[in-house]
Amino acid sequence: MKTSVSSKLTLFIALLFLIILTAITLVMYQNAKATVYQHLSAVQNKTVEDVSRAYDIYADVKRNAMRKAAEILSQNIDSYNEKDLIELAKMLKESAGYSIAYIALEHNGNNYYSNGNIRNKQGGYDTLNRPWYKAAKEKGELAVSEPYLSNTSGKFEMTYSAPLIKDGKFYGVVAGDFDLTVYSHGVLNFGKSASTDSFVVNVNDGSIMFHMDEKKMLQKDKLSQAIAEAVKVEPRILDPEHTDYIFYEVDDNGIEQAIMCHNTINPSYKACSVTQASVYENEVKKQLVSSAIVGIVSLLISLLIVRIIIARSIRPLQAIQQGLNNFFDFLNHKKQTITPIHIK
């Protein structure tokens, strides 16, 4: 009887505890999930925000340096000799961090480089028909090229060019090339970690403009194209009121990625931070496992204590049962005496 009653009571309480524990664990899991997602999304949002700002700062520095150079050069452009032009190009290169800078003149088609070279049509280089020259001349202001692979240097570059205008007359163009690998490492280091990667995507065609891995620059992959498509169809991705919006896409390896994107100074380029979705899921699972282990250990300890309390509490029932057995044994002449029942 002692075993039966205590076991049944313990089982009943165990089931009750289990129901309560399950409910508490589910609530804790949902809270932990919300907290983890909020924390990780905040970190990822800060990462892509830093990348976007760094990109804009780099771009502004290069743009402003070229604008200022054009403004200063234009003041005395008709008085410089060849040596002056080469020295001025060299100063622009070193001060603004261009890989090379150059000054091209309209009247003779010569292009004066910071490395001391002079190129012109006689040498097979048609300066006046170069895209960077024509863009600055036609716009009448700063022009920035799309990223390209340079045939001369073999590097991924962008060209910044600005017209030289004095008293309304066009004299030529000042320009500079910038190495995109330097650009990428300077900008994207802000968004690099063990589980997170960052790059800049051209959402017009899904090509990767800037990436820490040079092999991926000016290339397209499944993820970059999926990002470009998602940005076009989901306005919340770039909504300034929802900068922490996360969307999910699968990369070339079939791994689901959690992605955040921000605008940059170039309307076509979006800075994106990419984190494996499993990072979010694994962190939530850790929280769930921790809660479950604590709950199970607490349940086992509680049941052990309850079992001991129940066993001690039902000892009087055992005494009553033994006393009644003795009484009926006496009535049936199986015993000659009756044992008194002593209970508290």
Written account of the structure:
- This protein has 7 helices and 12 strands.
- It has helices at 2-75, 82-96, 131-139, 180-188, 222-233, 277-313, 315-331; strands at 100-105, 111-113, 118-119, 143-144, 148-149, 156-166, 169-179, 196-202, 207-210, 247-250, 256-263, 269-276.
- Strands 1, 2, 3, 4, 5, 6 and 7 form a 7-stranded antiparallel β-sheet that branches.
- The mean pLDDT is 85.
- A hairpin with a 6-residue loop joins strand 5 (148-149) and strand 6.
- The two termini are 19 Å apart.
- The protein is 50% helix and 20% strand.
Task: Give me the secondary-structure topology.
Blueprint: H1 2-75, H2 82-96, E1 100-105, E2 111-113, E3 118-119, H3 131-139, E4 143-144, E5 148-149, E6 156-166, E7 169-179, H4 180-188, E8 196-202, E9 207-210, H5 222-233, E10 247-250, E11 256-263, E12 269-276, H6 277-313, H7 315-331
Antiparallel strand pairs: 1-2, 1-7, 2-3, 4-6, 5-6, 6-7, 8-9, 8-12, 10-11, 11-12
